[in-house]
Amino acid sequence: MIFSLATAPTTEPITLAELKTHLRLDSGSFADEIDETQSIAPGLKAFIDDWTTHAGAALDVLGYTALVEFQAGECTGAGTVDVKIQECDTLAGVYTDWAGGAFAQVAAANDNATYEIAYTGSKQYIKTISKVLVANCSFGTTIIRRTGDTTEDDLLGDIIQASREYVEDITRRVLYTQTWDYYLDEFPRDNFIKIPFGNLQSVTHVKYTDSDGTQTTMTVTDDYLVETNGERIGRVVLPYGVVWPSFTAYPSNPIVIRFIAGWTTQALIPSKIRSAVKLYCADMYEMRGEPTIGQTVIENKTAERLIYSERLWDEF
User: Cβ atoms within 10 A of the Cβ of 306, count?
Assistant: First the structure.
């Protein structure tokens, strides 16, 4: 059997900002660590009952610590302002309200003040949208990112990936959504095939190729069923009364199962695994090369204990 990665994960189990916080890395001055970008430019806004007229510009916040400021000026008469944060995976995609991103409504009783909400979501882009009712109001919004020192960002990104792959090797799991091809030389005698790595999301296809090079795609439900089985090992299972195809196999990788596995969000990855990834990242960052004379490489027992219970023991 052979495993081949078809699509790598687009997100790591920890962000660059999280690792920098864990390593206590910064640029040394507050002014150098932050940048500010206006989402909604400050000024007097006409009252209109929709969320599109006074919508703000989006900003990439992936890998940053982000804070959104709502700077409320004067509300005329009985005017009110509502502001909320929206998020999206892509700059030009469809933005949706981020839970916890609605500011308290501002009126004359609480205007001329600044309100803040820290963005703790997982999307790459955020923006603010607003609605002004009854009378004109003055306000603006700003997205503040804590950038920190970026000189080692590429190195830290490589370290995060290497640490994640190391944890995947130990646990025999994939941590974040990935697409894999699983090649078999023959169908099993059992009425099921175990799918490796746990957290099976779906099976894209099951195909087999005969000795003439003709490839056949099996049909889900009719020819096989899919058991995702939560965080454990998933399976491709024969329906009642169905048998595996009988054919003369092509000499090279005659059977391929393409599947998608892994946790779907960072928040779903167990904290033990995320903590272990941080510990391995810290080790790689501190060592950064071969040990010098008199040094020894010490295994990280704490990280090993954290991920021991998450290891998959099934054979496949």
Answer: 21
Which residue type does 141 have? T
Quick one: three-class SS letters along 121-180?
CCCCEEEEEEEEECCCEEEEEEEEEECCCCCCHHHHHHHHHHHHHHHHHHHCECCECEEE
Farthest CA pair distance, the chain: 83
Instruction: Name the one residue in this structure whose structure tokens are 């023991």.
Output: 313
- Facing residues of 113 across strands? 72
Contact indicator for 71, 142 with CB cutoff of 8 Å: yes
Residue 279: other Cβ atoms inside 10 A: 20
Structure tokens at 219: 């049909």
Give the domain 29-146 fold. Answer: Jelly Rolls (2.60.120)
User: 208 - beta bridge partners?
Assistant: 216, 255
User: Domain spans of the chain?
Assistant: 29-146
56/52 Cα distance (integer angstroms): 9
Torsions phi, psi of 233, nearest 5?
Answer: -75, 130
Task: Find residue 45's DSSP bridge partners.
Answer: 137
Predicted TM-score of the model (pTM):
0.67
Q: Per the structure block, which two tokens stand in for 84?
A: 């909320």
β-pairing verdict for 2-7 and 178-184: antiparallel
Closest CA to 129 of 73, 80, 56: 56
C-alpha–C-alpha distance, residues 200 and 233, integer Å: 7
* Burial profile 199-215: b = 16 or more Cβ within 10 angstroms, e = fewer: bbbebeebebbeeeeee
User: Does 28 score more than 70 pLDDT?
Assistant: no
Question: Is residue 288 helix, strand or coil?
Answer: coil
State pLDDT tens for residues 135-180.
999 999 999 998 666 678 889 999 999 999 999 999 999 999 999 9
- Model confidence band, residue 133 (pLDDT cutoffs 50, 70, 90): very high
